[in-house]
Amino acid sequence: MPEEGRGPAVRDPRRVFAATAVGVVAVFLNMSGLAVALPTITRELGADPGQADWILLGYMLVTTALILVFGRIADLVGRRRLYLAGLVVFTAATGLAALSPSAEFLLAARVVQAVGAAAVITNNTALLTDVFPARTLGRALGWNVTVAAVAQVAGPVVGGAATELLGWRGLFVVCVPIGLVAVVASVLVVPRTPPSAGSTARRSGGNREPFDLLGALLSMAMLTALVLTLTPGATATVAGWLPWACGGATVALSAVFVLVQARRPYPLVDVALLRTRAIALVLAAVFVNAVSSYAVVLLASSHEQAAGGATSLEAGVLVTPVAVGTLITSAAAGSLLGRFTPRALTTAGMVVTACGLLGFSLTLSPTAVPFWTVAPFLFLVGAGTGLFMTPSTSALMLSVPTDRRGVANGLRSTTQNVGYLLSTALALAGTTAGLSEPAQHAAYEGTLNTLNVLASGELSRFVANIRVTGFVLTGIAVAGGVICLAFPTSLRASRTTEAVTNTRPEPATTRRTLP
Question: What is the model's pTM?
Answer without folding.
Answer: 0.74
